[in-house]
Amino acid sequence: MTPVTITQIPVGEIHCQREPYSRELKTSCIACSEKPDKKGFYHVKLHDTVLFPEGGGQPYDTGFIDDIQVYNVQRKKLEHIHYTKQPVPVGQQVFVKLDWERRFDHMQQHSGQHLLSAVLEQEPYFIETGSWNLGATKSYIELESGEKKQRMPTAEELKQVQKHINQLILDAAPFLVHTETNNDSTNKPDSLPEDYVGGGTIRHIEIKGIDRGNACCGTHIKHTGHLQSLKLLHSEKARGGNTRLFFIFGQRVTDTLDASLIVSKQLNTLLSVPQESFVENVTKLQQARTTNQKTAKRLMGELAIYITNDIATQLKGKSVVSLYREDADMEFLQLISFAIRDQKLVDNNAEMNRAVVLAAGEKHVGGPVIILASSDAIIQQVAKTVMAGLDIKGGGKGRWQGKAKNWKGIDEVQKQLDQLTV
Ligand SMILES: [Zn+2]
């Protein structure tokens, strides 16, 4: 790093925390690494910034320093570091611009999480939040069961919570920030990171009339009205009997509804019924599929017997019979091989040596092959002919099984098998 002459405004007091709605700022670059790191990023220190460094569960901001893109912002103790792919000249005035859409979304989810946790923590629920996660499309709070054997909210309670919070959004209750000087040894809350040391400021976020305050470094909305709307999603069991309750606030509610409507429209076209009939319609389709599968299985069984009878007739005139069907699969070959075994067509007690080759699959895709014969020696003899003419791998005693990469040479192989004497 180039030596620092101007000090940096520490995390806790940076512009994005004091003025979370500020989208740009004139400041100066006080340091920049001379070379990029292993991942190709320069580490840039600005005097102050409108880009929030990741912390408190809130992801980092992105934006620009002049026309240089900022990919990431991180906190190191009380310092903030911007990650760029081009160096930023040190000692010059710079103009920092925030990717506001990404940030405002984070503000809605983060402030929303404070409100959701506060409501659940109070009468009549008394359910505490252990941790939370802000995801790319949905977020969750983790309600810890833990030693306290905390109960989890019922579906009915969650409905009430959602209704209550959407009412609090209409009330536009202010978010207030209270600050105090960080004294590492006496007043550092447990929720602060271990390396948040060396002075700085601790910020407490109050939701007026709802939540008395939580230590939090995040950037928050002005009042609950800016949350726009809450939709609680599903909940999921997590380790230790915990429950993850998923939620979305603000624009994400509309985005999620949009995505659902697209799926609904596609299903409407596919099924030719309105949304309220989707479940009934798909249930009918599943039942029909089960019936069709049963019918297909029965017919395949019958067809396998007919084919086996035909093989039996052919075996009266020659010692090797081969069958290749493009439309068949392993399951069908198995049915034929079982019928051949049941009819004792290639038994080693038979008076005559015999072999049957069964192959299936489309010409260019290939597929399974089974060789059945009166003895292992005959199996090997037949397999040799099959392998010589086809791109195939396989093996086995008593019954040879393999897989061809394609069936391009099958006509020629069948001709040779026809003339083979075993
Ligand atoms: Zn927070």
From TrEMBL:
Any Gene Ontology CC annotation: cytoplasm
Cofactor entry: Zn(2+)
Keyword Metal-binding: yes
Keyword set, alphabetical order: Metal-binding, Zinc
Domain of life: Eukaryota
Matches recorded under Pfam families: tRNA_SAD (PF07973)
Keyword Transmembrane set for record: no
Gene3D superfamilies from the UniProt entry: 2.40.30.130, Threonyl-trna Synthetase, Chain A, domain 2
InterPro entries the record matches: Ala-tRNA-synth_IIc_core, Alanyl-tRNA_Editing_Enzymes, Thr/Ala-tRNA-synth_IIc_edit, Transl_B-barrel_sf, tRNA_SAD
Any one GO molecular function term: alanine-tRNA ligase activity
Subcellular location: Cytoplasm
Ranges for domain Alanyl-transfer RNA synthetases family profile: 44-259
Family the UniProt entry places it in: Belongs to the class-II aminoacyl-tRNA synthetase family. Alax-L subfamily.
Protein name: Alanyl-transfer RNA synthetases family profile domain-containing protein
Native organism: Circinella minor
